[in-house]
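User: Second chain of the day. Same drill as before.
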Amino acid sequence: MPFGLVVSTLYGDDADIRAVGSGNIGATNVVRVYGWRLGGWVVAFDAGKGLVPVLLARLLWPELGLWWPGLVALWCFGAHCFPAYLEFNGGKGVATGAGGLLALSPWVTVPAVGVWVTMLAATGRSSVAALTSVVSVVALAWFVHPEVLPIVGLFGVGVFLTHATNIRRLVRGEEKQVVRPVRWSRGGDEAVPSAEQILAQGPGGGAVAPAPWRDDDDPLP
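Assistant: Same format as last time:
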């Protein structure tokens, strides 16, 4: 179920999400075009379609261990990235894969989600957040839960492959931001308004029109 296309078609405007922004149906492009108002729902739905099937696989066939729910997680990831009824042009699979891994190994996935949120806030680029979180989830699986490392490793390879064009744009310095990065500290002197700019501001901080009786060319008294 391509939730990015479904949600943007039902609740967005007349634009086809496949023809605007990056042309991708994933949550990142929905956020880029419509903001978090719709993009947040797409993230939740995409994560859910990885989370729910893997949870069901674990609950219904516990005797099969981790290999069966792991296979289900990879299947959900692949089906999201390459949907047959959209000519195999799907999303990048980060949210769906994260949902599947959350059901498979939450103590590995939750810290990686924290890395994703931090990197998105710091850089504003979803691709950077996705790639760094994938590296972190592989490292965490190596040290914390080695049993899921083969599944996590395959997921990581898949994410890097679906982000191949993003990686090329990052190398060229052409990758665009999805959100404005958080400013962790005050900017330089150019970000600080001068005394004249402060005096020219109105009560709410915005610019005010000059008095009608005063000529702009006249010096200040």
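Residues 21 and 33 are 6 Å apart (CA to CA).

User: Great, on to the next one.
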